[in-house]
Amino acid sequence: MESIKDRVAIVGMGCSKFGERWDKGVEDLIVEAAYEAFEDAGIGPKDIQAAWVGTVFSGLSAITLAPLQLQYIPMTRVENMCATGSEALRAASYAVAAGVCDVALAVGVEKLKDSGQTGVKGPAVVGDNSEGSSGIGPGYSAPASFAYLATRYFHDYKLKPEEGKRLLAQIAVKNHHNGSLNPKAHFQNELTVEQVMNAPIIAWPLGLFDCCGVSDGAAAAVVTRADMARNFRADPIYIKGLQINVGARQGAMMQDYDFVHIEENVLGSRKVYAEAGVKDPRQEISCAEVHDCFSIHELIVYEDLGFSPRGRAREDIEAGTFTLAGALPVNTDGGLKCFGHPLGASGLRMMYEVYKQLQGKAGPRQVKNPRLGLTHNLGGNAGTGVCSCFIVGNEK
Amino acid sequence: MPAEASTLPERSPLSLQNRWRERKVISALYGVRCQACGTPQLSQIGQALRVCVNCQARDRFEDYKFSDKKGRLFSYAIDQLQPTLNPPGVNGVVDFEGGGRLICELTDCDLDKVRVGMPVAMTFRKMYQLRGLVNYFWKARPAE
Ligand SMILES: [Zn+2]
Prior knowledge:
Chain A is an alpha/beta fold. Chain A has helices spanning 26-41, 84-97, 142-156, 161-179, 193-198, 229-232, 250-253, 263-276, 281-284, 295-304, 313-319, 335-339, 343-358; strands spanning 8-15, 50-54, 75-78, 103-111, 201-204, 206-207, 216-225, 237-246, 287-289, 372-381, 384-393. Chain A has 2 domains: 8-115 and 216-234, Peroxisomal Thiolase, Chain A, domain 1 (3-Layer(aba) Sandwich); 142-212 and 239-393, Thiolase/Chalcone synthase (Peroxisomal Thiolase, Chain A, domain 1), CATH 3.40.47.10. Chain A is built from 13 helices and 11 strands. Chain A is globular, with a radius of gyration of 20 Å. Helices cover 8% and strands 39% of the residues of chain B. The longest helix of chain B is centred in the first third of the chain and has 6 residues, at 16-21. In chain B, strands 6-5-4-7-8 form a 5-stranded antiparallel sheet. A 3-stranded antiparallel sheet of chain B has the order 2-1-3. Classes of the chains: A alpha/beta, B mainly beta. Residues 34, 36-37, 39, 52, 54-55, 57 of chain B line the site of zinc ion (ZN).
């Protein structure tokens, strides 16, 4: 079995403005992101030899990409819940690595705000057949499915509700600070710990600002063979590892699952570190974009991905380890917290930030001397999920 | 008095076909026990279990009734958004004595007394009515 390491490079990326894009359709978001990626790569749409589009709700089949008017090339739609955008990039990268095309496009898009509703539609339980449900699932909201983690984390680590909520609030405050420096973010406002702690409860113990927003957005990447990458640009970003790890409801069905970690995160990250040759992620990863759908999950990701020792994320949060000036900046662009979570777009939006960071083009959010960046998604919830863990670097 | 409609997207339609296949789970909370490793298990979504979640043995199951088993609350979430006849939605991870786990709605509970480790028992309740079909299923209630 061969690794993907250093065989594929990203040579162009684009990302639409995220937010309530009432005046724009799916087609506008796709064109906005893809044309920025084409221009960044110094190519035109005719240079694209194959394409993948990730969307969960905003289109059926690769005809979703029709607005780009790519002319009769192989294209496929992929869906892998919250990892959908990442999945599109993985498919395009694998095709290039297989040698069946030299230049491929990955696009992720989601238009959530047209529904006029406040959440993401779907079956009552993740993975159920939405066209013929048994009705067995309790049908709680996504915030509730992550609140189980917070309840149990507070219990196991003996945090009073006030202490636990204060800890989580610092994550939201950090991400909003980063988002305030990012013109593409949906929310560009700073928050205070008090605002977060006093916000209305959504799913106890999580409040409004523990939850990410719902927004519209798209992002895109152009990938090519690593040995051709410098024909496109002087600073390509090389793929070091692409891992997807999927559960089978073990945690929802068996009592040995503890609700203070996510097994898919642990195993997915371990595999991507092995693939990328990373031995000590805390030292070697320069910046990370992780799935902060809910503040408690970002905390758990610190521990699952080996950024903090198990049970000790609190020390790192309080020391500022994950802030822009810290040792391992996390969600430097503002995260899902400030971008919202248009499912198909999120994974590629994260990669857009890491790509810009590794090229030294992240403006006021720039981290110092980055070498390796990580993106991470988790679809589903505590009990079963789809995890993506990708690593990219600016040296071959 | 009708509860205010949830602002969450509407649930998926109930499937009579699916519910007929899973009638033993719905009417008596039957799951299965693996004859290879002994693990009691219950599907979260009304799917027949064909391969064991613990040892991956295929089709080596006997029926196993969960409705009469005592349980304890492993974790919980109180959901202000949940479309439920009994708002706010109180949900728990229920670990059954003898093995097996179900994540389900809680009922008949005093919100201030819900805690990790709380003993619970299962009770058959009306979940909701959608497009003319009434959905009955199981909820957990405090059993102290
Ligand atoms: Zn078994």
